[in-house]
């Protein structure tokens, strides 16, 4: 999964040959990844507010933060590969199969027996929109059935994921906020169920900070590899909300009830080292060698007999699946009420009006 300079040059040429215009958002991501790969983090002065085009480019590039140049090069190659249409198979990087170029919020690629699902809203720290929840469910369903031995979830840019996109709260349907809360609880329950029922080894490659639901879900993964730049933050009480992702079941089991309470009730942010010591993370790697070391390891895992790995996962998880579904249902029921509370409305408004951050 490591792109060479040749892959990068090929991808650069492929972009010029794309038959379909990928749209402005994708073009900005291509621009940002290209600049990051070739020049490193953005050091340009911020353009003026009326310089719309350069401001959009600057936002996209700075949104990648300190993403290592090698990772930016890989993400650029993956993104171009995902854009290559089936009518032009010659454009795809040899060996890398783009599963679904149609995703708006994800880049999904399969190579070396590994399907990689990459959250792809780096300028928004990979916050999960309603569209992204839906696309993730589709991508997981497809990955569960494809030929790959392993499935990996990771993030593009300097964040793994900043959790639920808080603008999800602003899109209120004609049925009002109660209807929105009800629909969101159904969406969330279905979303988390995809992780509970995922049939093959699922690995999180946590490339940077993780917030909210992207942290709680980690208890449902089979391995969690983290950069030493990653942090793990679940500020549910700060947001007037309550935990999800089956964390009310998995976290006490993983780290004990006292540590789980500190994280899930009081929102204690864990460093990668602390998360590893508490059992939420499998292993931490220095950021400078993170991608290289993790992908080498995953490639080796992917050569193991896939049916044996699936069978082992099934035996490990079968006994608790019922409890996990029950925890998921109860968490969604409680959250539905929380979303209608003043505490939640005030916290979301404070973020959206730029008065508060975590
Ligand atoms: C009525 C019911 C509706 C319910 C719908 C819910 C559906 C399912 C819910 C599932 C439950 C999940 C819960 C959670 O995940 S809780 C955690 C939510 N996440 C947060 O609270 C994080 C908020 N973000 C931040 O605090 C900061 O952005 C952060 C610390 C992550 C990064 O700070 P930094 O200074 O480095 O970067 P910026 O803030 O400038 O971020 C860059 C741009 O990205 C936007 N952004 C980042 N995170 C989010 C987010 N979670 N939601 C929306 N937007 C986000 C940020 O606003 C910047 O955008 P602009 O460049 O446009 O300003």
UniProtKB/TrEMBL annotation:
Keyword Phosphoprotein applies: yes
EC primary class: isomerase
Record bears the keyword Membrane: no
Region entry Disordered, spans: 82-102
Pfam family, one: ACBP
GO cellular component, one term: peroxisomal matrix
Annotated EC: 5.3.3.8
All residue ranges annotated as the ACB domain in the record: 4-89
Reaction equations catalysed: (3E)-nonenoyl-CoA = (2E)-nonenoyl-CoA; a (3Z)-enoyl-CoA = a 4-saturated (2E)-enoyl-CoA; (2E)-tetradecenoyl-CoA = (3Z)-tetradecenoyl-CoA; (3E)-octenoyl-CoA = (2E)-octenoyl-CoA
Signal peptide limits: none
Pathway in which the depicted protein is active: Lipid metabolism; fatty acid beta-oxidation
Compartment annotation: Mitochondrion; Peroxisome matrix
Keywords (A to Z) from UniProt: Acetylation, Isomerase, Mitochondrion, Peroxisome, Phosphoprotein, Transit peptide
InterPro entries in the cross-refs: Acyl-CoA-binding_prot_CS, Acyl-CoA-binding_protein, Acyl-CoA-binding_sf, ClpP/crotonase-like_dom_sf, ECH/Chromodomain_protein, Enoyl-CoA_hydra/iso, Enoyl-CoA_hydra_C, FERM/acyl-CoA-bd_prot_sf
GO molecular function: delta(3)-delta(2)-enoyl-CoA isomerase activity; fatty-acyl-CoA binding
Family statement: In the C-terminal section; belongs to the enoyl-CoA hydratase/isomerase family.
Function: Able to isomerize both 3-cis and 3-trans double bonds into the 2-trans form in a range of enoyl-CoA species. Has a preference for 3-trans substrates.
Identification of the protein by name: Enoyl-CoA delta isomerase 2
Species of the source: Galemys pyrenaicus (Iberian desman)
């Amino acid at each position: 999964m490591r792109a060479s300079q040749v892959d990068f040059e090929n991808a650069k040429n492929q972009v010029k040959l794309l038959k379909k215009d990928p749209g402005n958002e994708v073009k900005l991501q291509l621009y940002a990844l290209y600049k990051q790969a070739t020049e490193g983090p953005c050091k340009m002065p911020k353009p003026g507010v009326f310089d719309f085009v350069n401001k959009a480019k600057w936002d996209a590039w700075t949104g990648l933060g300190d993403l290592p140049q090698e990772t930016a090069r890989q993400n650029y190659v993956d993104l171009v590969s995902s854009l290559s249409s089936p009518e032009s198979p010659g454009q795809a990087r040899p060996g890398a199969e783009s599963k679904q170029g149609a995703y708006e919020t994800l880049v999904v690629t399969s190579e070396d027996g590994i399907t990689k699902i990459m959250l792809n809203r780096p300028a928004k720290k990979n916050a999960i929109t309603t569209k992204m929840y839906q696309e993730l469910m589709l991508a997981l369903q497809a990955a569960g059935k494809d030929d790959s031995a392993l499935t990996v979830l990771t993030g593009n840019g300097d964040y793994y994921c900043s959790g639920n996109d808080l603008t999800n709260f602003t899109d209120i349907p004609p049925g009002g906020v109660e209807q929105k809360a009800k629909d969101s609880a159904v969406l969330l329950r279905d979303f988390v169920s995809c992780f509970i029922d995922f049939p093959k080894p699922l690995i999180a490659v946590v490339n940077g900070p993780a917030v909210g639901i992207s942290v709680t879900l980690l208890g449902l993964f089979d391995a969690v590899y983290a950069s030493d730049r990653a942090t793990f933050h679940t500020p549910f009480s700060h947001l007037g909300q309550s935990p999800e992702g089956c964390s009310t079941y998995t976290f006490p089991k993983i780290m004990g009830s006292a540590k789980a309470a500190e994280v899930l009730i009081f929102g204690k942010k864990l460093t990668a080292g602390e998360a590893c010591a508490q059992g939420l993370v499998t292993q931490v790697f220095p950021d400078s060698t993170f991608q290289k070391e993790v992908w080498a390891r995953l490639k080796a895992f992917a050569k193991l007999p896939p049916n044996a790995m699936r069978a082992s996962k099934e035996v490990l998880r079968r006994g608790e699946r019922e409890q996990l579904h029950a925890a998921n249902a109860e968490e969604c029921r409680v959250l539905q009420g929380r979303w209608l509370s003043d505490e939640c409305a005030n916290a979301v408004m404070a973020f959206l009006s730029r008065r508060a951050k975590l």
